[in-house]
Amino acid sequence: MFSTPISISGPLRAPQQMLADQEYDGHVSIHDDSMAEQLGFKAWPIEGPTHFSMFPPLLHDLFGPAFFERGCISAHYQNMVVEGEQVRAFAERPAAGQTSTRIWAEKADGTPVLEASASLGPDHGQTLLEARLAALRPPGPLVILEDLQVGMRGVADEHVRMDPDQMMGKLYPFSLNQKLARITENSPWYSEASASPWGRPIIPWEMISVLAEYSSGLARFPVKGPAVGLFADQEIRMLDGPLFVGEDYIVRREIAALSESRRTESYWVRTRIYDKTGERQVAEMLLNHASLKQSYEGYEARLAEIS
């Protein structure tokens, strides 16, 4: 009998960029080549949740279909991936009876892409992001996020859905069907009712991020701009899933934490997804929106005023 951790992995994949035309605050995003270069990055990065699609084959192997109903991926993004680079997903096989494990992704040369925990509820234990939140220190004076407070909520319920050919707006200028044509790991569960164990197509894990985020402007959180942002940490947790294509949902948002680093100011948003009645919560996303300080005009001058 050995206590050696045993890992499984998927094949090398080349995730594709689909946010080159993304727009918010009236300007292009970091996923545009020219904007990325202005901010010191070699090329447009691929959005972090794209990498979530590599994990369901591994997690289905470890936990079965229940992972799509009660699973959680809690990830810290470590290094950006640009189109043309290859990435591989890994998962540590949990010991018998355990319902949580370590997962991660690396580039072909071993460069870490993300570290994460994966777990099967309802008892997830402490997820990776719960541990990171607990370790946060109070930020210093904030400029871009000067008007935000922990506990602040979105102004109203947001009504969302994802149909197969529905364009998902300026933040996500593509449809589910367009994503499925380029997704790193496809499944008939995402498009064929007869193939799905639930009798309906389900929303892919990475597209849950799109469902939860495409209407986020309606929350009207008073974030100053324009400023370029990126995802630094992200947790998607299923409570009573899966989420279905063509189903109406209600989204409610709350600021869970504020933090900063040398280069960024961050607001962590907890987004709760309910069924169309607004009474039964089915999923939840925790997302660290990191705004690049250098992208906000007059940042240093304003910081000096309030310090």
Description:
The chain has 307 residues and is an alpha+beta fold. It has seven helices and twelve strands. The chain has one domain (7-306): Hotdog Thioesterase (Thiol Ester Dehydrase, Chain A), CATH 3.10.129.10. It has helices at residues 33-38, 56-63, 67-70, 128-134, 176-180, 205-213, 299-306, and strands spanning 7-9, 23-24, 27-28, 71-77, 87-92, 100-107, 112-120, 158-160, 229-238, 249-260, 264-275, 281-292.
Task: Describe the SSE topology.
Blueprint: E1 7-9, E2 23-24, E3 27-28, H1 33-38, H2 56-63, H3 67-70, E4 71-77, E5 87-92, E6 100-107, E7 112-120, H4 128-134, E8 158-160, H5 176-180, H6 205-213, E9 229-238, E10 249-260, E11 264-275, E12 281-292, H7 299-306
Antiparallel strand pairs: 1-5, 2-3, 4-7, 4-9, 5-6, 6-7, 8-10, 9-12, 10-11, 11-12
Q: How can the largest sheet be summarized?
A: 10 strands, antiparallel
Order of secondary-structure elements: EEEHHHEEEEHEHHEEEEH
> What spatial order of strands do you see in the largest sheet?
1-5-6-7-4-9-12-11-10-8
CATH fold field value: Thiol Ester Dehydrase, Chain A
| Strand segment count | 12
Distance between the termini: 59 Å
Can you identify the CATH class?
Answer: Alpha Beta
The secondary-structure class comes to: alpha+beta
Tell me the strand percentage band.
Answer: 25-35%
The shape is: globular
Averaged pLDDT, please? 92
The helix count comes to 7
* Integer count of domains: 1
Q: What's the gyration radius in Å?
A: 19 Å
Residue windows where pLDDT falls under 50 for at least 5 positions: 27-33
Helix content: 10-25%
CATH architectural designation: Roll
What's the CATH H-level superfamily name?
Answer: Hotdog Thioesterase
